[in-house]
């Protein structure tokens, strides 16, 4: 069993991380970037485009993970750490899939994917739209917390335990 993730897995992880940070930041930074993107509508066009890109990347990441597996990095750790790591990653993946889908569900206007392709709104009831909107707006806080926890755990493994977990997800030098 390898002690590192593959180059494909590493690239997809860091690309996803960058896109998630950008996507989560856009609504908060709209005053700073709206003029660059043609107004508030442009900010949300980019936000939705990045969200759908994250959805596609997450599906690809899961397919690559299923095919290539993961390194056995926590072999010497307690069982609860394995369980916590699996649970944390599982919830992160669920949110990376559910957030863009809920965004699609609650939108009433077509989504212009990077101003190139138009995706019509999904035909759902107003109650479903309201539920999807509430989920989307609430789940972002859970996503913030999970990202912070994920980063803290990676740093704890690297600087506290010195066990190679973070190195396994960093590009080779």
From TrEMBL:
Q: Which GO terms of the molecular function aspect are on file?
A: electron transfer activity; heme binding; metal ion binding
- Keyword annotations: Cell membrane, Electron transport, Heme, Iron, Membrane, Metal-binding, Transmembrane, Transmembrane helix, Transport
Note whether Nuclease occurs among the keywords: no
Pfam families membership: Ni_hydr_CYTB (PF01292)
Which cofactors are reported in the record for this sequence?
Answer: heme b
Q: Which PANTHER family match?
A: CYTOCHROME B561, CYTOCHROME B561 BACTERIAL_NI-HYDROGENASE DOMAIN-CONTAINING PROTEIN
> Could you tell me what this protein is called?
Cytochrome b561
What organism is the protein native to? Pseudomonas straminea
């Amino acid at each position: 069993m390898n002690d590192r993730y593959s180059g494909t897995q590493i690239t997809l992880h860091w690309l996803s991380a960058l896109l998630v940070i950008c996507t989560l930041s856009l609504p908060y930074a709209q005053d700073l970037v709206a003029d660059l993107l043609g107004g508030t509508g442009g900010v949300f066009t980019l936000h939705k485009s990045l969200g759908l890109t994250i959805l596609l990347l997450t599906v690809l990441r899961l397919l690559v993970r299923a095919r290539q597996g993961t390194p056995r990095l926590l072999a010497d750790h307690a069982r609860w750490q394995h369980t916590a790591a699996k649970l944390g990653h599982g919830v992160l993946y669920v949110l990376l899939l559910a957030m863009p889908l809920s965004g699609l569900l609650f939108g009433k206007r077509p989504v212009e994917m990077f101003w190139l392709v138009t995706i019509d709104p999904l035909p759902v009831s107003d109650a479903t739209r309201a539920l999807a909107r509430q989920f989307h707006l609430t789940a972002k806080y859970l996503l913030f917390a999970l990202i912070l926890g994920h980063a803290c755990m990676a740093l704890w493994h690297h600087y506290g335990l010195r066990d190679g977990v973070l190195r396994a997800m960093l590009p080779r030098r």
